[in-house]
């Protein structure tokens, strides 16, 4: 008797719990065919935290560490380059999330949780690590290695978390939407990254106008809280639990096998080469445009800052048009990327011309065009990667994209700075280098802009054959876009081993 | 709802699912614990509050 009533009670409670629970669980109710725009918009918030972390490290802390904390510039550069160490591991992270074993039937959410945790942890210790590094307060007497290792750890944690969140977040976005909506998602992701960078740059500069160590702690730890909040909001109810995935036997594929499988996809290696060349070509000018405008064309700080805004506006325009062309007009992603690179070449030639003619409007126009080309190129190549990704290797493909893209951009920025600095101090350019303005001061910059145009030309040459090749593994099942949902299900069934 | 015999009271998760949720909790606690400890040590280095 007693046992049976107890049993009924349990059943009753279980039924109630099951009925309420879905509202309070961070899983999607079901893998719905149609994902509304509002949900995609919410998902893209994780890109905002990535943008925040980028601006804080590359922009704000770069300055604060050198000017306010008086840390040697080479050490600062070394610290800020540390997150790049993790970039090649993006492919591994993507692969791990593809093959992740979870009783809950999840594969992206746990990784984003981990990535967010590392990002938060890095930001949590970063301000104190920086204060110790700069010898603030009693830390003057502390052994040097404490500050060094703590700061390195903080930057590594933030960098690792950022790479994990971005890779797995993009993979989740690709999981969620049917192929014909992918251009929309890519556009959204890029716009959010840019928006996050612009907004956080404004907020940081407003908050840090009067610098105090306490304010630095508040700003960085505030970033940590905002990061965890936005990532949580972005991921809430996005990934559906998949019972079949939870019960599936453990995948035996190793990372190298998966990489080989990916690299034999037609056009994949060529696409990655194009991404490396083009990203390096467009990225090299990122940190040099402002000093170029200041030194060569005598622009004020406010004016050169506006130059960066113009670059961002050009990119926004590029993302918007690329989304439209790829989505509604059905262009091939690679054609959009090729158009971007085609536009980029004359843009950098125009930058070089502006140094010879010393006309500011020409430089501004060139910057806008370069930004526009970069927007088209970035959008086209990421969409191409998503389309080319085999269904069960989405994480790995986007990891490879991220690894190549981030490494190329980082290497390009470093190389651009190096070329300029070497040219700057070489005797035949003039020992009075820093005092020079006008066309003479342009000499250290010209090889960089020339190299950019050259890299873009190379990217064009490599990309050209891809136009004819169908690197879209899913559309090779040849189904009209109007029945996209059904065709997606079919092609999933077909690509599954 | 199915009457899966693996489901345990009161959450309706199976044992393996429950263990996985628990592992995330444990992981989080460990990572945040270490982070908090590190932050305290670093603060103590800059502005000692003991001795």
Q: Unreliable segments of chain A (pLDDT under 50, ≥5 consecutive)?
A: 429-434, 473-497
**Count of DSSP strands of chain A:** 0
The proportion of residues forming helix of chain B, as a percent range, comes to 55-70%
What is the structural class of chain A? mainly alpha
Q: Tell me the major beta sheet of chain A.
A: none
Radius of gyration of chain B: 20 Å
- Helix-strand sequence of chain A: HHHHHHHHHHHHHHHHHHH
Provide a descriptive summary of the structure in words.
The complex is a heterodimer of chains A (497) and B (51). Chain A has 497 residues and is an all-alpha fold. Chain A folds into 2 domains: 33-243, Up-down Bundle (Growth Hormone, Chain: A), CATH 1.20.1250; 265-481, Growth Hormone, Chain: A. Chain A has 19 helices and no strands. Chain A has helices spanning 2-24, 37-43, 45-68, 73-81, 90-98, 109-133, 144-176, 182-207, 213-235, 243-247, 255-263, 268-283, 289-297, 301-327, 333-357, 360-388, 394-425, 446-463, 484-495. In chain A, helix 3 runs antiparallel to helix 4 (73-81), helix 15 runs antiparallel to helix 16 (360-388) and helix 16 packs antiparallel against helix 17. Chain A is globular. By secondary structure, chain B is mainly α. Chain B has one domain (16-51). Chain B has one helix at residues 15-46. The N and C termini of chain B lie far apart (61 Å). The A-B interface holds A 10, 13-15, 17-18, 21, 102-104, 110, 113-114, 117-118, 120-121, 124-125, 128-129, 131-132, 136-139, 142, 146, 150, 153, 246 and B 1, 7, 9-12, 14, 16-17, 19-21, 24, 27-28, 31-32, 34-36, 38-39, 42-43, 45-48.
